[in-house]
Write a structure and sequence with these properties.
The protein has four helices and no strands. The chain has 98 residues and is mainly α. It has one domain. α1 runs antiparallel to α3. The model has no long low-confidence stretch (mean pLDDT 84).
């Protein structure tokens, strides 16, 4: 959860992220690499992946996967609500069916 929120914080601080051709993308990546929150989020994400690999290797996948993924979704949503004052939508906001 912390990694996702720190990556988002770094992206916001860098002015956003958009693919705008090769030069533009390289420029965005350079800006992101200078953001401490983004760099810390990247490192934490890597460490979380190592923990994930260990859990998947030692625990039954039918138990580990649903539990960890659901905890991640819930904690990232809660963190976004708190950190970014994000809105929580319980229903899809796409087009209304006729």
């Amino acid at each position: 959860m912390a990694a996702n929120l720190m990556l988002r914080t770094g992206i916001d601080a860098a002015g956003g992220f958009a693919f705008t051709g090769l030069c533009g993308t390289v420029s965005v990546i350079a800006r992101l690499s200078l953001q401490p929150a983004f760099a810390a989020g990247f490192v934490i994400y890597f460490l979380a992946s190592v923990v994930w690999f260990r859990i998947v290797a030692t625990e039954p996948l039918t138990l580990a996967y649903p539990v960890l993924v659901s905890l991640t979704f819930a904690s990232v949503a809660a963190g976004a609500l708190y950190s970014f004052s994000a809105n929580l939508f319980l229903c899809a906001r796409s087009q209304v069916w006729p």
